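Need residues for this backbone.
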């Protein structure tokens, strides 16, 4: 018979023997997951994150606990969420969406942080180097903010005669200024006037689309890197179709719901890699030694059904470049 292994602890001055299994259960690490988005629309990304964890041997509920915190577009809640996860002694902080990443970065220099962001980590001040991040932080970037000018270019390509294009940004997002500046530069290149519209909650969306119609804008480009817009991608796609506004965003769900086009990186693979990095850190690796990963593959989705409803003819050259055409 194999002897039962035990360890001894003191409770009230008395020595008590605990099975090793009980000790292992008590020692189960906890990961704190914080996001500026909403749990429903981000569910497929959480599944990808768990897949990455599974690849490193960690299964939620078995040998790992995960505490989730969702700001649902209310970014001022994020510092309190991060502070709570730190008080609960999270072994690793997983910070997704740029507002969540910045909140985690500001809160600790010791607890390992693994991030997923749309922006350039160097430009955001998260690290001085992608290959050697140093400190307590590493992660994955889609660089979706850096391709913001490309969405303006797509809007112009869909309607070369356009003189006015609208850009929707969330002014409370730390990426808003960079997205606006880069998009304005692109619009100037094509001789297009860019009108910047703001939305901080989904209650602003109807007014935004009415403004686009009043401006007679040829298209609406919805800024990347914002959890509010990402969480409401389907709602925004449906509104674009309802108001007959040619609109472009970064999420496929937007195009599938009625938006004219989507252009952006693969978030599923990014979140899987975040899970892999989290597992590796739980096994003892240091964030400083894990290079920041860049997802360089961009996907162009065109909704041909929406184009027909809007009376637009998508150029054959653009159709040929599409990764997917929804008909």
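Answer:
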């Amino acid at each position: 018979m194999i002897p039962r292994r035990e360890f001894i602890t003191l409770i009230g001055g008395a020595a008590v023997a605990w099975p090793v299994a009980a000790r292992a259960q008590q020692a189960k690490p906890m990961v704190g997951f914080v996001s500026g988005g909403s749990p429903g629309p981000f569910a497929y990304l959480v599944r990808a994150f768990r897949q990455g964890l599974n690849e490193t041997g960690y299964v939620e509920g078995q040998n790992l606990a995960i505490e989730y915190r969702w700001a649902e577009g209310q970014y001022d809640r994020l510092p309190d969420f991060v502070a709570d996860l730190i008080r609960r002694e999270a072994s690793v902080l997983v910070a997704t969406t740029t507002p969540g990443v910045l909140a985690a970065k500001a809160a600790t220099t010791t607890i390992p942080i693994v991030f997923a962001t749309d922006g350039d980590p160097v430009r955001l001040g998260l690290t001085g180097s992608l290959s050697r991040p140093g400190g307590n932080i590493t992660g994955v970037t889609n660089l979706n903010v850096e391709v913001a000018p490309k969405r303006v270019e797509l809007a112009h390509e869909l309607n070369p005669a356009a003189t006015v294009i609208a850009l929707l940004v969330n002014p409370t997002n730390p990426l808003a200024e960079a997205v606006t500046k880069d998009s304005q530069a692109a619009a100037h290149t094509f001789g297009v006037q860019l009108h910047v519209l703001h939305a901080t909650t989904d209650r602003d969306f109807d007014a935004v689309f009415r403004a686009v119609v009043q401006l007679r804008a040829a298209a609406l480009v919805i800024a990347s890197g914002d959890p509010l817009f990402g969480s409401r991608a389907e709602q925004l796609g449906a509104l674009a179709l309802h108001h007959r506004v040619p609109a472009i965003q970064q999420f496929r769900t937007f195009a599938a719901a009625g938006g004219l086009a989507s252009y952006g990186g693969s978030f599923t693979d990014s979140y899987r890699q975040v899970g892999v990095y989290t597992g590796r850190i739980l096994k003892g690796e240091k964030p400083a030694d894990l290079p920041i990963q860049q997802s360089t593959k961009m996907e162009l989705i065109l909704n041909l059904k929406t184009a027909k409803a809007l009376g637009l003819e998508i150029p054959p050259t653009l159709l040929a470049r599409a990764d997917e055409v929804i008909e």
